[in-house]
Amino acid sequence: MMMKKAMMAAVAVCALTAGTAMAQQAEGPWMVRVRAVNLDSANKDSTGLGLSINDKTIPELDVSYFFTPNFAAELVLTYPQKHDLRSNGAKIGSLKHLPPTLLAQYHFTGMGAFKPYVGAGINYTRFSNVNFNPAVEAALDPSIKKNSFGPAMQVGFDYMLDKNWSINFDVKKVYIKTDVSSAGKKVGSLKVDPWLVGVGVGYRF
């Protein structure tokens, strides 16, 4: 009798495990999100020139892969974004930056359609097309460091509309810094360190 009960319990556990695995498989391991993101720069300048870049709204494409229902990796992408470069509010040039970010995420489960998550990872930013006004160029011979690496943090949620489609709200803090030089000599740094607040839609498959 005990053997029979043990076998029945084992069958029940196997059935439950199989059902859970099928449910996870049905969700699909991939998720793609498209967001509109407001970039709000901290603009912390140590050069004494009052350097800053403008805030703007940018498009964002995010690709996630779920290793388990809880753990995922997300790659955040966009195209090079152009910003005005200002000194004490006056425009002195422009630049572009490309800031791909890779995040490891933990997704909370058991809340129905509401699926919050937190994430942490690393950002790489490439500055390009750096142009200064001719007067600034002649007086200071300025330049900036083209590459930046820094941490990134994230919190957000998906609200599932059905098995595939969702709406998303997401907040990231990304640490971006570049050294500023004049005639080849470093004079300080500009920390962009933006908050990125985004809303969008997602599709899981």
Automatic annotation (TrEMBL):
Main location per the UniProt record: membrane
Signal peptide boundaries: 1-23
PANTHER family documented for this protein: OUTER MEMBRANE PROTEIN W (PTHR36920:SF1), PTHR36920
Coiled-coil annotated spans: none
UniProtKB keywords: Signal
Gene3D superfamilies (alphabetical): 2.40.160.20
Entry keyword annotation includes Hydrolase: no
Domain of life of the native organism: Bacteria
Subcellular location: Cell outer membrane
Entry protein name: Outer membrane protein
Pfam families recorded: OmpW (PF03922)
